[in-house]
C-alpha cells in the first residue's frame, strides 16, 4: 500500500470527526496518526511520507523567535491563515506553525536549527501594487515597504519580518 502525507492528514481529520465530544486538537490527532503509522512523531512522519508521487512545491521554513511578534506580522499584517500548529506536550513548548495565503505556504519554526534568521523568500504575485495598498491599509507601524519598479524580475516589494527574514513579492513581467 502506498501511503502519502495527504492520506495521513485525512486520517487525522477523520479521527477528530469521529471523536467530536473530546478536546482532541488537530495537532494531537496528527501525533496519534503518526504513532499509528510507526513514526516517533508528526514531524518525523511528515518528513518521511511523500506528499504525492513525484515532487511537490517546496515549503520554506523560516526561523521565528517570538510567537506574539510572528502572529502580529504574518497573520495580522500579511493576512496569512494558520493551517496547523504543533507543540510537544510539555509546558511552554516551542511552536512550529504552517501558514498559508493563497498558494503561498510557509512554515515558521522556533526549533533551534530550523531556518536561519536573515533568509529570503521570493514570491511571485499578480498585482504588487494591490498587495502594497492592502498592507498599507492594515496600519502596521513597524513596516512601510515601497515598490522597486526597476527590479530585474519585475516590480518588487520587500517586507522584513521581526526575525530579519525578507519576503520579496514580485510582479513578474513574463
In words, what does this structure look like?
The protein is of the alpha/beta class. It has five helices and eight strands, in the order αααβαββββαβββ. A four-stranded mixed sheet has the order 1-4-3-2. Strands 5-8-7-6 form a four-stranded mixed sheet, with helices on one face. Strand 3 and strand 4 (104-109) form a beta hairpin. Helix 1 (5-18) packs across helix 2 and helix 2 (26-36) crosses helix 3 (42-48).
| DSSP helix fraction | 25-40%
Whole-number average pLDDT? 89
CATH class label of the largest domain: Alpha Beta
Write the CATH architecture name of the largest domain: Roll
- Strand arrangement, largest sheet? 1-4-3-2
Q: How much of the sequence is in beta strands? A: 15-25%
Determine the N-to-C terminus distance.
Answer: 42 Å
CATH H-level superfamily title of the largest domain: 2,3-Dihydroxybiphenyl 1,2-Dioxygenase, domain 1
For the biggest sheet, the summary is: 4 strands, mixed
Radius of gyration: 18 Å
Q: Any idea what the shape is?
A: elongated
Order of helices and strands: HHHEHEEEEHEEE
In short:
With 174 residues, this protein is of the alpha/beta class.
Amino acid at each position: 500500500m502506498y501511503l502519502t502525507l495527504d492520506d495521513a492528514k485525512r486520517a487525522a481529520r477523520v479521527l477528530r470527526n469521529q471523536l467530536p465530544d473530546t478536546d482532541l486538537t488537530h495537532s494531537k490527532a496528527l501525533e496519534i496518526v503518526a504513532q499509528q503509522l510507526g513514526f516517533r512523531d508528526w514531524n518525523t512522519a511528515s518528513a518521511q511520507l511523500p506528499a504525492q508521487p513525484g515532487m511537490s512545491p517546496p515549503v520554506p521554513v523560516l526561523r521565528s523567535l517570538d510567537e506574539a511578534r510572528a502572529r502580529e506580522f504574518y497573520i495580522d499584517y500579511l493576512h496569512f491563515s494558520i493551517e496547523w500548529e504543533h507543540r510537544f506536550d510539555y509546558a511552554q513548548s516551542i511552536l512550529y506553525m504552517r501558514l498559508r495565503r493563497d498558494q503561498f505556504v510557509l512554515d515558521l519554526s522556533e526549533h533551534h536549527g530550523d531556518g536561519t534568521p536573515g533568509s529570503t523568500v521570493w514570491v511571485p504575485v499578480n498585482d504588487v501594487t494591490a498587495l502594497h495598498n492592502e498592507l498599507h491599509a492594515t496600519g502596521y507601524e513597524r513596516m512601510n515597504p515601497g515598490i522597486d519598479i526597476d527590479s530585474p524580475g519585475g516590480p518588487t516589494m520587500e517586507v522584513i519580518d521581526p526575525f530579519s527574514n525578507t519576503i520579496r513579492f514580485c510582479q513578474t513581467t513574463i
